[in-house]
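Researcher: Good morning. I'm working through a list of sequences from a screen, and I'd like to move beyond sequence-only analysis. For each chain I'm collecting a predicted structure so we can compare shapes side by side. This is the next one on the list. No need for commentary yet; just the structure.
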Amino acid sequence: MSAEYGLGQVIANRELAFAAPDGTQSPVLLEIGLPRRDPEGPDWYCPYRITGHPGVVDRVTAIFGVDSLQALQLALTRLPGELRELSELSESNDAAGLTFLGGTDLMLGGEGS
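Model: Good morning. Structure tokens for this chain:
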């Protein structure tokens, strides 16, 4: 698929904190867009974006499903794993990683999220 998928209307967001090796903190924003029909086919997609983390290129990721509910559910299922990978990347670079409300549980429902 060659289409560029924009974020569009944001239906949910969460602000996390990234702690750098020097102790400074910066916001990391997670945004989930409204699921929409794929312009190139019969499926639906749910866009999401993670910004503010030094290990992430600012881009929109599109997760596909057979309908809007499945696309949203698959995006929500994918996010904890992607954020866990970012936390592990942070820790390997001597950073404290990602936190939410001061704790390491990002409260996204995934194992270890």
